[in-house]
Amino acid sequence: MDIDIKQLRELMKAMKQLGVTELELEGPEQRIMLRRGSDEASFATPTMMQQGSPSMPPGSFPPPPIEHAHAAAPAIPADDENVVFVTSPFVGTFYRSPSPDSAAFTDVGQAISPGSVLCIVEAMKLMNEIESEIAGTVIEVMVENGKPVEFGDKLFKVKKS
Amino acid sequence: MDIDIKQLRELMKAMKQLGVTELELEGPEQRIMLRRGSDEASFATPTMMQQGSPSMPPGSFPPPPIEHAHAAAPAIPADDENVVFVTSPFVGTFYRSPSPDSAAFTDVGQAISPGSVLCIVEAMKLMNEIESEIAGTVIEVMVENGKPVEFGDKLFKVKKS
Amino acid sequence: MLKKVLIANRGEIAVRVIRACRELGIEAVAVHSTVDAEALHVRLADRAVCIGPAPSAQSYLNVPAIIAAAEIAGADAIHPGYGFLSENAEFADICEQCGLTFIGPTPRDMQQWGEKVPARRLATSLGLPLLPGTAVLADADDAVRQAENIGYPVILKASAGGGGRGMKIVRSAPELRRVFPQAQSEAIAGFRNGDLYLERFVEEPRHIEFQVIADGQGNARVLGERECSIQRRHQKLLEEAPSVAMSQELRGDMIATLERAMKESGYRSAGTLEFLLDERENLYFMEMNTRIQVEHPVTEEVSGVDLILEQIRIASGEGLSIPKDRPIVLNGHAIECRINAEDPETFAPWPGRITEYHPAGGAGVRVDAGIYGGWRVPSAYDSLLLKLITHGRSRSEAIRKMERALRETLIGGIRTNVPLHLEIMRNADFRDGRLSTKFLERLRGSRAA
Amino acid sequence: MLKKVLIANRGEIAVRVIRACRELGIEAVAVHSTVDAEALHVRLADRAVCIGPAPSAQSYLNVPAIIAAAEIAGADAIHPGYGFLSENAEFADICEQCGLTFIGPTPRDMQQWGEKVPARRLATSLGLPLLPGTAVLADADDAVRQAENIGYPVILKASAGGGGRGMKIVRSAPELRRVFPQAQSEAIAGFRNGDLYLERFVEEPRHIEFQVIADGQGNARVLGERECSIQRRHQKLLEEAPSVAMSQELRGDMIATLERAMKESGYRSAGTLEFLLDERENLYFMEMNTRIQVEHPVTEEVSGVDLILEQIRIASGEGLSIPKDRPIVLNGHAIECRINAEDPETFAPWPGRITEYHPAGGAGVRVDAGIYGGWRVPSAYDSLLLKLITHGRSRSEAIRKMERALRETLIGGIRTNVPLHLEIMRNADFRDGRLSTKFLERLRGSRAA
Fold this sequence. Notes:
The complex is a heterotetramer, with 2 copies of chain A (161 residues) and 2 copies of chain C (449 residues).
Chain A: H1 5-18, E1 22-26, E2 31-36, E3 71-73, E4 75-77, E5 83-87, E6 92-95, E7 111-112, E8 117-123, E9 126-132, E10 136-141, E11 148-149, E12 154-160
Parallel strand pairs in A: 3-9
Antiparallel strand pairs in A: 1-2, 4-5, 5-12, 6-8, 6-11, 7-10, 8-9, 10-12
Chain C: E1 4-7, H1 11-23, E2 27-33, H2 40-44, E3 47-52, H3 63-73, E4 77-79, H4 89-97, E5 101-102, H5 107-114, H6 116-125, H7 140-150, E6 154-158, E7 168-170, H8 173-191, E8 196-200, E9 206-215, E10 220-232, E11 235-241, H9 248-265, E12 268-277, E13 283-289, H10 296-303, H11 307-315, E14 333-340, E15 352-353, E16 356-358, E17 365-369, E18 376-377, E19 384-392, H12 395-408, E20 410-412, H13 418-425, H14 428-431, H15 439-448
Parallel strand pairs in C: 1-2, 1-4, 2-3, 4-5
Antiparallel strand pairs in C: 6-7, 6-8, 9-10, 9-12, 10-11, 11-14, 12-13, 14-19, 15-18, 16-20, 17-19
């Protein structure tokens, strides 16, 4: 009998992620049954931050930054080893451009290189420009402009070059 | 049947990591079932009863029974399907003979049949004669004379005939 | 002091008694059925004896097995908890005959309070207020005349009836004249006896009960009241102390009356006098429970008295630890929620394995539980898993603490009534103290509407 | 009242503050490092924000990240707990500048009590008793003359020394004459400064501290004392309230003195004044901690005052809930055991996954925990898992409750100091109240012998 470990593991992972506790699969040649036990304590997970930055009225945009705090954005690998996520090194509010009227620092399809400014994360009224550590092409912008981000939140999906 | 230990180990690892407690795989030639024990709380188990019956001084023996409470002793199967355990239907003190001077009701190697008195379990000053439900040969006497027994404790190991 | 106590019970009350024993330096012996071999009370006890199979009749109600267990374990006393054998005078008697101290009232206490008619006669002789009622009525005219004295609404009952059969609620004299002959024919048809009598009917009563602890030697103390109006199918679900419906004056009067009555009757150990409270601040004696009750912790929290400890002291012949002349001071407010393994909507029992368990903690929270994570709740017994008790300086503080404690309580793998308790905590009538035994019915009605 | 409070802390104190917020109807925002993503405080909070990686410097001590978290979560206040940023005046100042209420003392309070020398000057000006000592000594004759006033034993210290270096305990005048020149040469050699001074030496001091809660508007209350003599490596392990070493009279005097001092200094929020108590009932001020302390629950249990609630009320501008003229009544006795993830013998930290967890429950037991079953205790932070607090009518009742609660506490998968606490509960010196900061050293010595 062929056992596709990767496939089963994927199934288990999916079960864990999706809270499925039992799974049965039966084909002409194979029958698969998976049951998940109690996970660790499952307290209600706190609701995620979704509201806009409260330090300014919604829809408004901060004045151009006076100070630039340069910070490199750590990249973490995705499933495909050539694809990485650029994550936030700060807690704060995510901005894609230096001011409401300007163009975004970067966008899907655009090439980036180490040192390219990707976005701003504003915290304590400081505009922290987030620079890329890697070279590649932006595949996806994962946070909406003006939304709060936590430390480690994924900001950009990038195909390394 | 081919057993791919490495593969199974991988499966078990995945189960442990992901909290899966049961796994069944069934093919035309093979069926695999895996179940992980739940890590239940393991409080210290209370110490077992070991002291003699406190209703009389140690070493002494009760007067001959005035009332006989006849009770059939339930038998539960052992690993070998021809061997069973006769268990106590009462809480009380176990006696092998009707009085200190008499011979034991039964002993190792002796044949018993349904209705044979096997022992006495004394409770509330009542001498309860315990009768056999089955026919066979006593292989082992599992409790010492004069010791306390709980409900369900194994008294005799019997080979069924 | 006693040396080794056998607890003839299971679940949270067995755990409660084991704890009290531990704190007094007494060894605790648990008994259990085969399905309870892994239960918390077994795990926490110093010793445990299996006394029979799952059905209560063959284990927790099996008197010879329990006595034999006490004998083989060398116990010198038995605490019966509540339910099971706790109000069985014969069992208490057998214990004493076997040289085992019964931690509870005397067999005489149990007998005289255990049956409805003698208990009401005793209550009357002790000066306790009873629901106004009549003897057998001569005819409709007699009924109307006597109903005027009682005051409407009244309830017309068949002397030979019972369990609610043949009962009619009547709100006026014309209605009484109209239903009287009809009730009489129904009684003759149903019970071959046309005798009828009247009782005052309380529309929306509150269930109020008073906690007694007495040494049987002339020291009897009443530790205030509990309100237990929130019930489902006549089973209490939530209790509190004190009751918002009792004035300080009425409480003081009742405590004095009941302490005198309990001294006079020579009552021993813990007991509870149950009353109905009507809308006009009248209390009517219903019955006395001659045992510790599920809801005793709310009284412990406000009075600072450990009732199980006092029971054990009394049984040991050491008397109450509360000096005779020291007034009982009741501090703040306490609430108890009974957390059951049941569907919160249908109340259907929900036994099964508890996959996860994390009790609430922190200031002002007490958890009296009979469970742990990984244990399988057996289907053979009642569904009470644990009692969550909060104590605050005021009722609103106790409610706020209970709300947060309920939100923290995690019991996975089975259904519990935690959501229902949360709904009660957030209900405006509950928060304002507008309670009656119809509260829960109303709550469900308002949701359905 | 505040609407949303961010708790800039982790573990049991974060859970404690979240509970207080819940009970006040305030939303609670947790912050956490990446390794604490699954921590109990994160799970219990209404919202949670990840502020950085495991090292405290980059997360729980990361001021910009914490302020930014408060901004994105819309919090209007920050509670710092204890440790981390709780006594950082600059942080309190930044909070206020960013429009966030700091729930704690004013930056001025923190500054003036935070440094040893100015704090002692302030204490002197407020009339608090300090350890008797001298200025720089002229010579050996001067030393002997001044030592007579202080009383032997004394401790001879180098002015430029610190951390125990260059200190000599002296028990008589001849000894002082003998060691003086030697200490002087050592001081010159070690610190290039031969200045010496004397202080009274307390052989076996008790650590006694007084809890203050003040609104900064002239209402300052002292809620009695705690005894925290049982320490290991200067870390408290077990605390109780009240102290058996304090007479009612001394307590009354100290409360009056300290309430006056706190009013005079305009102190705000919770704070603790730490003293040494010598064998002759003399108290000597050591320092003031301008924050809530780990051991605050024992005071809460005996006083009935919820200190975190009071802190939040004060920060909200609502003042204390204790009326100015109502005397503080201290009821019974409370003990707290700090349960740490550590080897009970070596004190080596023991992080790891908690495979099983069942906390103690029942009457008189409070559990303030930061853990749950299945959670992995990270190695990045201190080892405190939970605090077990018992409250009884007397010290011996509190001890018996603690003993049984410790026996019930189940924490599997890691090592904890539960066995050490059990040993302390059963120790005759502890039971008799013979305590000093040398207690634990003695206990281990007696076992080794």
